[in-house]
Design brief:
Length: 297
Amino acid sequence: MKHAKQILIIAILLSVIGVMAYAYLRSNTAAQAKAFENSQVMTADAVKKNIVQTFTSSGEIKTRRTQSLKPNTDYKFKALCASVGQTVSEGYPVVEYTNGKTLNAPFDLVITGTALPAKGEALTAEHAVEVSDVHNLQVQMSVFENDLASLHEDQPVSITVAALGNKAFAGKLSSINQIGKYDTSGSKFTVSADFENDGSLKLGMSASCSINVRSADNVLSVPVAAIQSGEDGKYVTVKAGDAEEQRKVETGISDGQDVEITSGLNEGHTVILPSAGEPSDAETSGGEMNMTEQEVL
Protein backbone atom coordinates (compact mmCIF):
# COMPACT_ATOMS: atom_id res chain seq x y z
CA MET A 1 0.00 0.00 0.00
CA LYS A 2 2.82 2.32 0.96
CA HIS A 3 4.64 1.49 -2.28
CA ALA A 4 1.54 2.37 -4.33
CA LYS A 5 1.29 5.79 -2.63
CA GLN A 6 4.90 6.52 -3.48
CA ILE A 7 4.29 5.67 -7.13
CA LEU A 8 1.22 7.94 -7.17
CA ILE A 9 3.15 10.85 -5.63
CA ILE A 10 5.95 10.42 -8.17
CA ALA A 11 3.44 10.37 -11.02
CA ILE A 12 1.79 13.56 -9.75
CA LEU A 13 5.17 15.29 -9.43
CA LEU A 14 6.17 14.27 -12.94
CA SER A 15 2.84 15.59 -14.28
CA VAL A 16 3.32 18.92 -12.53
CA ILE A 17 6.87 19.19 -13.83
CA GLY A 18 5.66 18.37 -17.36
CA VAL A 19 2.95 21.03 -17.25
CA MET A 20 5.42 23.63 -15.96
CA ALA A 21 7.96 22.72 -18.64
CA TYR A 22 5.35 22.94 -21.37
CA ALA A 23 4.19 26.36 -20.13
CA TYR A 24 7.76 27.61 -19.99
CA LEU A 25 8.60 26.39 -23.47
CA ARG A 26 5.43 27.85 -24.91
CA SER A 27 6.07 31.22 -23.27
CA ASN A 28 9.68 31.20 -24.42
CA THR A 29 8.69 30.29 -27.98
CA ALA A 30 6.14 33.12 -28.09
CA ALA A 31 8.73 35.56 -26.78
CA GLN A 32 11.21 34.44 -29.42
CA ALA A 33 8.58 34.78 -32.13
CA LYS A 34 7.73 38.28 -30.89
CA ALA A 35 11.41 39.23 -30.85
CA PHE A 36 11.85 37.87 -34.36
CA GLU A 37 8.81 39.77 -35.54
CA ASN A 38 10.13 42.99 -34.03
CA SER A 39 13.51 42.42 -35.63
CA GLN A 40 11.82 42.22 -39.04
CA VAL A 41 10.12 45.63 -38.73
CA MET A 42 11.47 47.95 -41.41
CA THR A 43 12.00 51.59 -40.54
CA ALA A 44 13.26 54.76 -42.19
CA ASP A 45 14.32 58.16 -40.93
CA ALA A 46 12.70 61.42 -41.95
CA VAL A 47 15.44 63.23 -43.87
CA LYS A 48 15.78 66.29 -46.05
CA LYS A 49 16.38 65.86 -49.77
CA ASN A 50 15.49 67.24 -53.20
CA ILE A 51 12.34 65.78 -54.77
CA VAL A 52 11.37 66.05 -58.42
CA GLN A 53 7.89 65.02 -59.55
CA THR A 54 7.93 63.58 -63.05
CA PHE A 55 5.24 63.03 -65.64
CA THR A 56 5.92 59.94 -67.74
CA SER A 57 4.18 58.68 -70.84
CA SER A 58 4.91 56.79 -74.04
CA GLY A 59 3.98 57.04 -77.67
CA GLU A 60 4.92 56.46 -81.28
CA ILE A 61 7.74 58.24 -83.10
CA LYS A 62 6.31 60.06 -86.10
CA THR A 63 7.52 62.58 -88.65
CA ARG A 64 6.80 66.28 -88.20
CA ARG A 65 6.57 66.86 -91.95
CA THR A 66 5.11 65.05 -94.96
CA GLN A 67 5.25 66.28 -98.51
CA SER A 68 4.23 65.39 -102.07
CA LEU A 69 7.21 65.78 -104.39
CA LYS A 70 5.98 66.84 -107.83
CA PRO A 71 8.11 65.74 -110.82
CA ASN A 72 8.79 68.15 -113.69
CA THR A 73 5.91 67.77 -116.17
CA ASP A 74 8.16 68.87 -119.05
CA TYR A 75 10.10 65.62 -118.74
CA LYS A 76 9.37 61.93 -119.15
CA PHE A 77 9.70 59.39 -116.36
CA LYS A 78 12.61 56.95 -116.35
CA ALA A 79 12.98 55.46 -112.85
CA LEU A 80 12.30 55.79 -109.14
CA CYS A 81 15.76 55.93 -107.55
CA ALA A 82 14.70 54.37 -104.22
CA SER A 83 11.92 51.99 -103.24
CA VAL A 84 8.99 52.73 -100.96
CA GLY A 85 10.15 52.55 -97.34
CA GLN A 86 13.74 53.45 -98.22
CA THR A 87 15.46 56.57 -96.90
CA VAL A 88 17.06 59.14 -99.17
CA SER A 89 19.50 61.78 -97.90
CA GLU A 90 19.03 65.44 -98.74
CA GLY A 91 20.32 66.25 -102.23
CA TYR A 92 20.24 62.68 -103.54
CA PRO A 93 18.02 61.62 -106.51
CA VAL A 94 14.47 60.45 -105.91
CA VAL A 95 13.21 60.39 -109.52
CA GLU A 96 15.26 60.14 -112.71
CA TYR A 97 14.00 61.56 -116.02
CA THR A 98 14.75 60.15 -119.48
CA ASN A 99 16.96 63.18 -120.24
CA GLY A 100 19.30 62.24 -117.40
CA LYS A 101 18.14 64.95 -115.01
CA THR A 102 16.79 64.10 -111.54
CA LEU A 103 14.34 65.22 -108.88
CA ASN A 104 16.41 65.40 -105.68
CA ALA A 105 15.39 65.05 -102.05
CA PRO A 106 14.79 68.47 -100.41
CA PHE A 107 15.59 67.00 -96.98
CA ASP A 108 16.40 63.65 -95.38
CA LEU A 109 13.31 61.57 -96.12
CA VAL A 110 11.71 58.18 -96.47
CA ILE A 111 9.49 57.37 -99.45
CA THR A 112 6.01 56.40 -98.26
CA GLY A 113 4.13 56.11 -101.57
CA THR A 114 4.23 56.84 -105.29
CA ALA A 115 1.94 57.70 -108.19
CA LEU A 116 4.15 57.52 -111.27
CA PRO A 117 3.70 56.51 -114.95
CA ALA A 118 5.41 53.70 -116.79
CA LYS A 119 8.98 54.16 -117.96
CA GLY A 120 9.24 56.58 -120.89
CA GLU A 121 5.78 58.10 -120.39
CA ALA A 122 5.12 61.80 -119.83
CA LEU A 123 4.72 63.16 -116.33
CA THR A 124 1.60 65.13 -115.38
CA ALA A 125 0.35 67.14 -112.40
CA GLU A 126 -1.31 63.96 -111.11
CA HIS A 127 2.02 62.26 -110.54
CA ALA A 128 3.85 62.55 -107.20
CA VAL A 129 6.15 60.87 -104.71
CA GLU A 130 4.90 60.94 -101.10
CA VAL A 131 7.68 61.38 -98.55
CA SER A 132 8.16 61.89 -94.80
CA ASP A 133 10.92 63.83 -93.07
CA VAL A 134 13.13 61.45 -91.04
CA HIS A 135 15.18 64.14 -89.28
CA ASN A 136 12.52 66.30 -87.62
CA LEU A 137 10.50 63.92 -85.44
CA GLN A 138 7.94 63.93 -82.66
CA VAL A 139 6.36 61.59 -80.14
CA GLN A 140 2.58 61.75 -79.84
CA MET A 141 1.04 60.73 -76.52
CA SER A 142 -2.50 60.27 -75.28
CA VAL A 143 -2.78 62.11 -71.94
CA PHE A 144 -5.58 62.03 -69.37
CA GLU A 145 -7.33 65.35 -68.77
CA ASN A 146 -6.29 65.44 -65.08
CA ASP A 147 -2.62 65.58 -66.10
CA LEU A 148 -2.94 68.52 -68.50
CA ALA A 149 -2.64 71.16 -65.76
CA SER A 150 0.99 70.16 -65.22
CA LEU A 151 1.93 70.39 -68.89
CA HIS A 152 2.61 73.37 -71.12
CA GLU A 153 4.29 74.04 -74.43
CA ASP A 154 8.11 74.37 -74.54
CA GLN A 155 8.62 72.18 -71.45
CA PRO A 156 11.87 70.17 -71.79
CA VAL A 157 11.22 66.50 -72.48
CA SER A 158 13.61 63.58 -72.06
CA ILE A 159 12.84 60.95 -74.70
CA THR A 160 14.23 57.42 -74.40
CA VAL A 161 14.02 54.60 -76.95
CA ALA A 162 14.13 51.07 -75.51
CA ALA A 163 14.93 49.52 -78.90
CA LEU A 164 18.23 51.44 -78.87
CA GLY A 165 19.24 50.44 -75.35
CA ASN A 166 17.28 53.29 -73.72
CA LYS A 167 19.16 55.87 -75.75
CA ALA A 168 18.09 59.37 -74.68
CA PHE A 169 17.13 62.35 -76.84
CA ALA A 170 16.38 65.92 -75.75
CA GLY A 171 13.12 67.41 -76.93
CA LYS A 172 10.43 69.87 -75.96
CA LEU A 173 6.66 69.82 -75.66
CA SER A 174 5.41 71.36 -78.89
CA SER A 175 1.61 71.13 -78.83
CA ILE A 176 -1.39 70.16 -76.73
CA ASN A 177 -4.51 69.38 -78.73
CA GLN A 178 -7.41 71.51 -77.52
CA ILE A 179 -9.99 68.87 -78.45
CA GLY A 180 -10.05 65.70 -76.36
CA LYS A 181 -11.56 62.29 -76.90
CA TYR A 182 -14.18 61.39 -74.30
CA ASP A 183 -13.76 58.22 -72.28
CA THR A 184 -15.69 57.00 -69.23
CA SER A 185 -12.41 56.79 -67.30
CA GLY A 186 -11.52 60.38 -68.27
CA SER A 187 -11.11 62.30 -71.50
CA LYS A 188 -7.76 62.07 -73.29
CA PHE A 189 -5.83 64.66 -75.27
CA THR A 190 -3.05 64.28 -77.82
CA VAL A 191 0.21 65.87 -76.69
CA SER A 192 3.28 66.08 -78.94
CA ALA A 193 6.98 66.37 -78.11
CA ASP A 194 9.40 67.44 -80.86
CA PHE A 195 13.02 66.31 -81.21
CA GLU A 196 15.66 65.58 -83.85
CA ASN A 197 16.88 62.25 -85.20
CA ASP A 198 20.59 61.52 -84.95
CA GLY A 199 20.24 58.94 -87.71
CA SER A 200 19.55 55.96 -85.47
CA LEU A 201 15.77 56.22 -85.27
CA LYS A 202 13.08 54.83 -87.55
CA LEU A 203 9.53 56.07 -87.93
CA GLY A 204 7.05 53.97 -86.00
CA MET A 205 9.40 53.13 -83.13
CA SER A 206 8.03 53.50 -79.59
CA ALA A 207 9.52 55.95 -77.12
CA SER A 208 9.08 56.95 -73.48
CA CYS A 209 8.82 60.60 -72.47
CA SER A 210 9.68 62.10 -69.09
CA ILE A 211 8.88 65.68 -68.03
CA ASN A 212 9.87 67.27 -64.73
CA VAL A 213 6.69 69.11 -63.71
CA ARG A 214 7.38 70.10 -60.08
CA SER A 215 10.36 70.16 -57.74
CA ALA A 216 11.11 70.89 -54.09
CA ASP A 217 14.63 71.38 -52.76
CA ASN A 218 15.88 70.35 -49.31
CA VAL A 219 12.47 69.31 -48.00
CA LEU A 220 11.63 66.82 -45.26
CA SER A 221 10.70 63.45 -46.72
CA VAL A 222 9.95 59.82 -45.91
CA PRO A 223 9.44 56.77 -48.16
CA VAL A 224 6.03 56.67 -49.84
CA ALA A 225 5.43 53.27 -48.21
CA ALA A 226 5.32 54.92 -44.79
CA ILE A 227 2.20 56.96 -45.59
CA GLN A 228 -1.13 55.42 -44.63
CA SER A 229 -4.71 56.66 -44.62
CA GLY A 230 -7.26 56.70 -41.82
CA GLU A 231 -10.56 58.35 -41.03
CA ASP A 232 -8.75 61.56 -40.04
CA GLY A 233 -6.50 61.64 -43.09
CA LYS A 234 -2.92 60.59 -43.68
CA TYR A 235 -0.63 59.38 -40.95
CA VAL A 236 2.65 57.62 -40.25
CA THR A 237 3.68 55.36 -37.39
CA VAL A 238 6.61 56.84 -35.49
CA LYS A 239 8.97 54.56 -33.54
CA ALA A 240 10.69 55.82 -30.38
CA GLY A 241 12.52 53.02 -28.60
CA ASP A 242 10.01 50.26 -27.89
CA ALA A 243 7.05 52.64 -28.22
CA GLU A 244 5.05 53.42 -31.33
CA GLU A 245 2.56 56.18 -32.05
CA GLN A 246 0.59 57.40 -35.02
CA ARG A 247 1.29 60.92 -36.25
CA LYS A 248 -1.02 62.78 -38.58
CA VAL A 249 0.94 64.28 -41.49
CA GLU A 250 0.41 66.49 -44.50
CA THR A 251 2.25 65.69 -47.71
CA GLY A 252 3.52 67.55 -50.75
CA ILE A 253 5.05 66.27 -53.97
CA SER A 254 6.54 62.84 -54.57
CA ASP A 255 8.95 61.25 -57.00
CA GLY A 256 7.31 57.84 -56.55
CA GLN A 257 9.90 56.68 -54.01
CA ASP A 258 9.87 59.45 -51.41
CA VAL A 259 7.20 61.96 -50.48
CA GLU A 260 7.52 65.46 -49.06
CA ILE A 261 6.24 65.96 -45.50
CA THR A 262 4.93 69.50 -45.00
CA SER A 263 3.77 69.03 -41.39
CA GLY A 264 3.56 66.41 -38.64
CA LEU A 265 7.18 65.21 -38.49
CA ASN A 266 10.63 66.53 -37.69
CA GLU A 267 13.95 65.60 -39.20
CA GLY A 268 15.34 62.47 -37.56
CA HIS A 269 11.99 60.93 -36.64
CA THR A 270 11.95 57.21 -37.36
CA VAL A 271 8.88 55.91 -39.16
CA ILE A 272 7.75 52.32 -39.57
CA LEU A 273 7.26 50.96 -43.07
CA PRO A 274 4.18 48.70 -43.19
CA SER A 275 5.01 45.10 -43.98
CA ALA A 276 3.83 43.40 -47.17
CA GLY A 277 0.09 42.96 -47.03
CA GLU A 278 -0.53 46.12 -45.02
CA PRO A 279 -2.00 48.83 -47.22
CA SER A 280 -0.12 52.10 -47.62
CA ASP A 281 -1.48 55.33 -49.02
CA ALA A 282 -0.44 55.22 -52.67
CA GLU A 283 -3.10 57.66 -53.83
CA THR A 284 -2.06 60.84 -55.58
CA SER A 285 -3.42 63.63 -53.45
CA GLY A 286 -2.24 67.11 -54.29
CA GLY A 287 -0.01 65.87 -57.08
CA GLU A 288 2.38 64.09 -54.77
CA MET A 289 2.87 60.82 -56.61
CA ASN A 290 4.34 59.97 -59.97
CA MET A 291 1.81 60.25 -62.76
CA THR A 292 0.99 56.92 -64.30
CA GLU A 293 2.17 55.67 -67.67
CA GLN A 294 -0.22 56.80 -70.38
CA GLU A 295 -1.71 54.85 -73.21
CA VAL A 296 0.23 54.75 -76.46
CA LEU A 297 -1.60 56.76 -79.10
